[in-house]
Amino acid sequence: MGCMNIVLFHSTYGLRPAVHAAADRLRAAGHRVQVPDLFEGRTFDTVEEGMEYRDELGRDELLKRAVLAAAPHSDEGLVYAGFSFGGSLAQHLALADEKARGLLLLHGTADLQEDAAVDDLPVQLHVADPDPFESHDWLTAWYLRMQRAGADVEVHRYPGAGHLFTDPELEDYDAEAAEQAWKAALAFLDSL
């Protein structure tokens, strides 16, 4: 089992206790984990409020904050990870970082640039089935684009689970699905 350096990005709910708990779970498995606060202390009770704030800040500003948070650790070869919107940021950074060791996506993906190219980047996605933010058609297209880009993609679907099913503070929480996801995620990290 190798110790991975992981940067874990929060969802549009902000950096809440569930994100710290996830980081602690990864640390307990022997990994070093950075958990940047891209919303500078702001947290939200609803996804709508979080999305409104995300849109207010703008994608470019949030990407800049994510890059600045990851940069001090990127020489070590990072595993980029994130919840929902944080997963989309993690994906952008991992695809742009030639030293990236892996990409762990929990509940979220992002579109790819046409010229995206990686060298066998290990990618694992955990997603509800169905998911209100990640439709079947979208995920099929995303999977094919990631493969064309050179990623080694593994997708885990969780029938009947809510969007952020790993977060015990939300209605979406599904204890059984969350445990399955964490078991697979930890095995994925061990394989890197």
Write a brief caption for the model:
The chain is of the alpha/beta class. It has a single domain (5-191), classed as Rossmann fold (3-Layer(aba) Sandwich).
Your description of this structure?
With 192 residues, the protein is of the alpha/beta class. It has a single domain (5-191), classed as Rossmann fold, CATH 3.40.50. It has 6 helices and 6 strands; from the N terminus they run E-H-E-H-H-E-H-E-E-H-E-H. The chain has helices at residues 17-28, 47-57, 59-70, 85-96, 136-149, 175-191, and strands spanning 5-9, 32-34, 78-83, 102-106, 122-129, 152-159. The protein has a 6-stranded parallel sheet, sandwiched between helices. Helix 3 crosses helix 4. The radius of gyration is 15 Å and the shape is globular. It starts with a strand and ends with a helix. The model has no long low-confidence stretch (mean pLDDT 96).
Overall pLDDT: 96
Structural class: alpha/beta
Q: Which range best describes the helical content: under 10%, 10-25%, 25-40%, 40-55%, 55-70% or over 70%?
A: 40-55%
CATH topology: Rossmann fold
- The name of the CATH superfamily reads Alpha/Beta hydrolase fold, catalytic domain
User: What percent of residues are in strands?
Assistant: 15-25%
The coarse silhouette is globular
CATH architectural designation: 3-Layer(aba) Sandwich
Flag low-confidence runs. Answer: none
Q: How many helical stretches? A: 6
Cα separation of the termini: 9 Å
